[in-house]
Amino acid sequence: MDTRFSFLLTLLLLLLCFLPTPSFSRSLATSARCNKNDYAALMKIKAALHNPYHLASWIPNTDCCNWYCVECDSNTNRIVELTIFQANISGQIPAEIGDLPYLNTLIFRHITNLTGTIPSTITKLKLLKMVRLSWTNLSGPIPSFLSKLPNLDFLELNFNQFTGSIPSSLANLPKLTGLHLDRNRLTGTIPESFGKFKQSMYLYLSHNQLSGEIPKSLGEADFTYLDLSRNKLQGEASMLFKANASTQTIDLSRNMLEFNLSKVELTKNLISLDISHNKIFGSIPEAITGLMNLQQLNVSYNRLCGKIPQGGKVQNFDSYSFYHNKCLCGSPLDACK
Ligand SMILES: *[C@@H]1O[C@H](CO)[C@@H](O)[C@H](O)[C@H]1NC(C)=O
Ligand SMILES: *[C@@H]1O[C@H](CO)[C@@H](O)[C@H](O)[C@H]1NC(C)=O
Ligand SMILES: *[C@@H]1O[C@H](CO)[C@@H](O)[C@H](O)[C@H]1NC(C)=O
Ligand SMILES: *[C@@H]1O[C@H](CO)[C@@H](O)[C@H](O)[C@H]1NC(C)=O
Ligand SMILES: *[C@@H]1O[C@H](CO)[C@@H](O)[C@H](O)[C@H]1NC(C)=O
Question: 328: domain range?
Fold first, then answer.
């Protein structure tokens, strides 16, 4: 009786091993890493995007950790990255992205026919560090609920059709270091709160329709990179220039700024300074000759006057950098009279 029983047991085990079973359930038991909740969310995302060819590797009942466009964490096996780039996809960002709770990177880029708004379910993704939704046709306002992502370090929403004003709550993001809202249709003023960023910032707001005065508070923040070009900003900007700032690039070109440049402080960290096409008056500060890292300079199309400081890198630039001012003189322009 005993031997017959063990014989039957062996036979049963052998059968279990060699019986053809659906690959997903077999791999779930042995080798599959994919978490079943992540798997379910990804299948819904694929369906919501109308099963695009770009996601052809997302085959039902296979290990989602092997799929293209996603990345599993090697310890937890949870989906931590979703990157859809240059895809022929038509539709909206699926609300089901909110069902990938371990996501730290969310990227939809260069997708012409990605339209609609940013779904509020994104606020469920408390571990998100990087969000890049750019070169798409997203529209509507930049949602203020993005400030509910406590780990967000890099937010890129450029080259879209976003309208409305910039939510001031974005300054509450405690870890933010890069904010790219350029090339949209944003209106209104720059939020006062943008003087409160905790870290040194890369801030890009260019190519919008921002108007009014630049808030004085911005003088209290530290910008490594500041691009406010091609807006309708008016008035003062001298608070953006500080001797002790880490600022490497300032681009204020093509606005309606009107202030006295004579008294601004210039940080030695400056690599690029473009203030062209404004109504800036006064003279170019002598301290500009001390900027040994300066590689780009454009003060053209303003109302500057007086002698161009001589020395340092200043004469590396040709007359087009100084062109069309009220009465600038000296090399590379004509000698002063
Ligand atoms: C976008 O959609 C339009 C109209 O439906 C279509 O003609 C075009 O091929 C699509 N382009 C891309 C890159 O998906
Ligand atoms: C947005 O859509 C328009 C019209 O379909 C298209 O010409 C444009 O290239 C799209 N923008 C981006 C960034 O793909
Ligand atoms: C720069 O100087 C200003 C005013 O003197 C001061 O308030 C600020 O804390 C300084 N910033 C840094 C980064 O040293
Ligand atoms: C700009 O400021 C300088 C230095 O304070 C001053 O001498 C000059 O008169 C001012 N220029 C104009 C046009 O207000
Ligand atoms: C400065 O701006 C003017 C006017 O837009 C342009 O012609 C010139 O090439 C620019 N110079 C540099 C060095 O960028």
Answer: 187-337
